[in-house]
Design goal:
Elements (H helix, E strand, L loop, with lengths): L2 H11 L10 E10 L4 E7 L5 E7 L5 E8 L7 E6 L8 E8 L2 E4 L5 E3 L7 E7 L11 H8 L4 E4 L11 H11 L5 H5 L3 E4 L3 H4 L11 H11 L15 E5 L2 E5 L23 H13 L4 E5 L20 H13 L5 E5 L5 E6 L9 E5 L18 E5 L4 E9 L4 E9 L4 E8 L6
Parallel strand pairs: 9-10, 10-11, 13-14, 14-15, 15-17
Antiparallel strand pairs: 1-2, 2-5, 3-4, 3-6, 6-7, 6-8, 9-19, 12-13, 16-17, 16-18, 19-20, 20-21
Length: 428
């Protein structure tokens, strides 16, 4: 049989549901993707499986192969990093074999590698995906129709409400199998942080019992490439796509665990290590747009009795805006989640940034809306009590500028609120 016919036959054989193959119990999931490398993850059914990831050209030719062995210590999860054969701006296919048998090989199972130069970015942000109220496929189908380069989860994805290691692992395992999401993440890069319900319990920060179990499971199930401070703390990370750099913060791990680096008489939210990482990253970033993102909202407009928001730590919230203004850091936007309402706020230049800095709240991916979160705020531009909603960020480089569209979209594809930005206007 000619090689191209064999590849076509193999494709047809394995273009159905990946979940149907018992050897792979979760995934594959695409993680960090840069112009030089791509992370791919999956979970198999047992220890000591020989798991191979094969990078293919679009014509089916093999470009590189990576072999891993599954272990119980990592809950049978394996992560691959393709470097050999990767070329910026090109699209590849990949296959996963388990014990010599093709176990994941679908038509939409592709790796789109970003360009190293000026380009565009299509990002989707979402939070709050409680399995009990996420309608099968609907929200994920709407996201797929936007053809995002990157899917960014802001926490409560999923809801776990436990630091028991097996409960953590099981919830993450099931999350990647949500109908529709499973198809999306095998062809779209994913970045994630956590919020209270996947970190521990409702409104939790800092030193909670067995929080190291939460971090272990998060690292096992999220192929982010880099995470936290390198000393076993936090899950913050950053990535760039085209004209957008995203700083994905951890607003749970460090909360109230040490004095604030901005005021030693007050507790921290971000912690010293993360604060320095954020400041350095913002200052050195050459991206026209810089998105500071966390699960916890940036303002204090919350329902009565809810304690977790940036305004509970005003020294760090206001200190961040002041730092942006003092250093002349341009193009900053803020994206948050958590509160089961989608909102848009615009903070005036006099708050410290030197120009209007907008916050977009995107919540929930499920259908559970909290009406009590519709709280007045002087900077409020838009409030939407909408279930099943996500935030679409589309940006591209222009000849002498860069532009960005921010859109809140519900699961039927309807845009409920949007705004256009030019990078040249977002500066002091």
């Amino acid at each position: 049989m000619p090689a191209f016919l064999f590849c076509f036959a193999l494709l047809i054989s394995f273009s159905g549901s990946i979940a149907a193959d018992p050897l792979i119990t979760s995934g594959p999931v695409i993680g960090r993707v840069t112009p030089e490398k791509a992370h791919v993850w999956c979970r198999v059914d047992a220890a000591d499986r020989k798991v191979e990831a094969i990078l293919l050209g679009l014509a089916g030719n093999e470009l590189s192969r990576i072999v891993q062995t599954s272990s119980a210590d990592a809950d049978y999860t394996v992560e691959f990093v393709f470097e050999k054969g990767i070329r910026p701006g090109e699209t590849f296919r990949y296959r996963i074999d388990v014990d010599g048998k093709p176990a994941a090989f679908a038509e939409d199972q592709r790796l789109e590698i970003p360009s190293a130069g000026p380009s565009e970015a299509r990002l989707v942000f979402g939070s709050c995906a409680n399995k009990k109220v996420v309608k099968a496929d609907g929200i994920w189908r709407a996201i797929r129709e936007r053809k995002p380069h990157q899917l960014v989860f802001l926490g409560d994805t999923p809801y776990i409400d436990s630091t028991d290691l097996e409960k953590q692992r099981s919830a993450h395992r099931d999350f990647w199998k949500y109908p529709g999401l499973d198809q999306l993440v095998r062809s779209t890069a994913v970045a994630s942080t956590w919020d209270d319900h996947d970190y521990g319990v409702n409104d939790a920060v800092g030193e909670i019992r067995n929080r190291h179990n939460s971090r272990q499971a998060f690292l096992e199930y999220h192929p982010l490439g880099s995470m936290g401070d390198g000393e076993g703390g936090g899950v913050y990370t950053r990535f760039r796509r085209g004209p957008v750099e995203v700083f994905l913060l951890d607003t749970r791990w460090y909360g109230k665990t040490e004095p604030s680096p901005l005021d030693p008489e007050k507790p921290t939210l971000l912690g010293k290590a993360q604060w320095q990482w954020l400041k350095s990253g913002l200052k050195e970033s050459t991206a026209p747009f810089k998105i500071i993102s966390s699960g916890m909202i940036f303002n204090g407009s919350v329902r009565k009795g809810k304690p977790d928001n940036w305004m509970m730590y005003p020294h760090e919230r206001n200190g961040l805006l002041e730092y942006i203004g003092e250093e002349g850091i341009s193009g900053v936007m803020i994206v948050t989640g958590d509160i089961h309402r989608c909102r848009h706020l615009s903070y005036p230049p006099e708050e410290g940034g030197g120009y209007a800095i907008d916050e977009w709240i995107t919540s929930p991916l499920g259908n559970f809306v909290i009406e009590a979160a519709n709280v007045p705020h002087p900077s409020l531009v838009f409030d939407g009590g909408e279930p099943a909603v996500f935030l679409s960020i589309e940006a591209k480089d222009l000849d002498e500028d860069a532009e960005l569209w921010s859109r809140l979209i519900r699961s039927d594809g309807t845009v409920i609120h949007e705004k256009h930005y030019l990078a040249s206007k977002l500066r002091k």
